[in-house]
Each structure stands twice: as C-alpha cells, then as structure tokens.
UniProtKB/TrEMBL annotation:
Organism expressing this protein natively: Leptosphaeria maculans (strain JN3 / isolate v23.1.3 / race Av1-4-5-6-7-8) (Blackleg fungus)
Start and end residues of each LicD/FKTN/FKRP nucleotidyltransferase domain: 93-198, 209-246
Main location class: membrane
Protein's GO biological process: glycoprotein metabolic process
Phylogenetic placement of the source organism: Eukaryota, Fungi, Dikarya, Ascomycota, Pezizomycotina
Pfam families the record matches: LicD
InterPro entries: FKTN/MNN4/W02B3.4-1, LicD/FKTN/FKRP_NTP_transf
Protein name listed in UniProt: LicD/FKTN/FKRP nucleotidyltransferase domain-containing protein
C-alpha cells in the first residue's frame, strides 16, 4: 500500500474557465484572452511549442528540459518509470479521472503487465473531456509520493499544455497534451487526449493529434487490469489496437531491441551481446570521467 500526499498548486489562471498556462504574445506581454482561443494566437507566436526536451534523438528527446541533468542509467530509468506510473495511476483513480495505458506501454502490459525494459518513456491516453478537466482543475499539481516503507520519496508535476483546446495536429509542435514529470531527472509519462474531431461526418471515430484513430467500440468498455502492481485500465479491443499500430509480429517475436523473452521468468532480459555492449559503455564513461578529473586537476 502506497502512502501519498497531494499538494495542488493553483495559480490565478486556474480559477477561471481558461485555467491553464496563459500564452505569451510575440511582444512579450501576457495574452489574457481565453486559452480556448489559443489557435488564434498561434500565428503571432514565434515559438509556440510548449514542452521542450534537451535534444532530439531517441534518448535526449525523452526528458523534460527543465528537470534534465544527465542521461540516467538503465537501472535508474527502470526505477523511475516503475514508481512514476504507479503514482500516476493511483492519482487518477483517487480523483475519479479516466485514463488508460497506450502505445508501447500497452504492448509491455500485453506481454507481462510491466513496462518494456527498453522503452524511453511511458504513454497514457484520456478522453478530451478528462483532458479539459485536468487543465481547469489539476494543472500544475505537485504530487508528493512515498512508498509504504518510506524508502522511496518522489515529487511529480502534472503539467498541461495550454494548446489542448486546439484538437488538430497543426505543425506537430504540440501533439503531447500533458505530462506527468519526475522532477528529479525529467523523465515523464506522455498524456494524449482523444477527441471526436468530426462527430457529424465521422461519428464514433476518436483520434489524437498524432493521427492515431480508434472506434468507440475498440476503446469501450474499458477493461480493468493490473500494471506494474497497481490497478489500471486498457482498451476493450487491445489486441486489434496493438496489431494496427505495431503489426502482429509485435505479439509473436521473442527477440527485440537487444532483449529476448524468457519464458520461465516471463520477463524480457538483455541478450549477452547487449550486456557486453552496456558494460563496455559503462567502462568508457568511467574512463572519460576520470580523464576529465585529471585534466581539471592540472588546471587547478
């Protein structure tokens, strides 16, 4: 049983209808118009991307730049993601907020109810009504988390993108609607909203800003399950959703990305080649740090 405290930070903007972060206009002044009209402001924004990462590759592209210090080890990423998703799912359940796991996180659940060990981030989805409620009520919530034995204590930030009211993709700069961020190292859970973009012409078709589309009967009724040891939800037709996104081989192949599926352990484990590569990288990193210390000592 996890013990938890919640500290909700409410800004003035959280008290009005357009409760999420107020856009800043190109002349540097605060734009006080409702966030629902964010798409009208976009043309005047030189840089309207809300979430920023320290780099664009597969590694650096999965940290929040505000909390990034250095690339974490595989062990720390595993520890961070395991506690982070537990805290996220517990928070949403306690506040009666509907959410479910998605994409690579859903694929990890399909294999053994856990995250994929090579995954750089975690993915969840919410309906657009829940997304708007997050922006109006829970944006900038700081969640204080502690394990039952008190040995693990973390703080997470729920940060909602002010462009959630714009449900079209646009230029792709704001396809992520919200993030649940570990403030120690910048790793996060990506949260994307699903909307019926064209309810008149395509009723019952839900999509996110990254063109993932689902029928209502593929999503609902949601299935109750367990993920990383806590209660979670997955879409009703999860097999079809996974096959549509990753093809059927994703549910069959037992060797992937330097890992093999151990049928006895029911775990993805690193191959011998991967372990040797990781050990070599670790030694090279240590040698580089030692060399840097020696060079600094010479300067001192």
């Amino acid at each position: 049983m996890w013990l938890r405290n919640i500290t909700i930070v409410l800004t003035t903007a959280a008290l009005v209808t357009a409760s999420i972060s107020t856009p800043i206009s190109s002349d540097g002044t605060t734009d006080t118009r409702p966030v629902r009209r964010a798409h009208d402001v976009r043309k005047r924004e030189e840089n309207h991307k809300y979430f920023h990462e320290p780099g664009g590759d597969m590694n650096l592209g999965h940290y929040d730049a505000r909390y990034f210090h250095e690339v974490v080890s595989d062990q720390e990423r595993t520890d961070t993601q395991s506690h982070m998703i537990r805290a996220y799912l517990d928070f949403f359940r306690e506040h009666n907020l509907d959410t479910w796991i998605a994409h690579g996180t859903l694929l990890g659940w399909w294999w053994n109810g856990k995250r994929l060990p090579w995954d750089y981030d975690l993915d969840t989805q919410v309906a657009d009504a829940t997304l708007h409620h997050l922006g109006e009520v829970y944006n900038q919530t700081k969640y204080q988390y502690a394990s039952a034995d008190g040995t693990v204590q973390r703080e997470y930030l729920l940060d909602v993108n002010p462009w959630i009211w714009e449900r079209e993709r646009g230029d792709g700069a704001n396809i992520i609607d919200a993030r649940w961020i570990d403030t120690r190292n910048g790793l996060f859970v990506d949260i994307t909203g699903l909307s019926e973009i064209h309810p008149d012409t395509h009723p019952g078709i839900w999509s996110c800003k990254n063109y993932h589309m689902y029928r209502t009967d593929e999503l609902y009724p949601m299935r109750e399950t367990m993920f990383e040891g806590v209660r979670a939800k997955v879409p009703y037709d999860y097999d079809k959703i996974l096959i549509d996104e990753y093809q059927e081989k994703a549910l069959i192949e037992t060797n992937f990305n330097g890992h093999r599926w151990d049928t006895q352990l029911r775990e993805w484990v690193q191959t011998e080649e991967t372990r040797a590569k990781k050990e070599k990288e670790r030694k090279e990193k240590e040698e580089a740090k030692e060399k840097e210390k020696l060079e600094q000592a010479k300067l001192d």
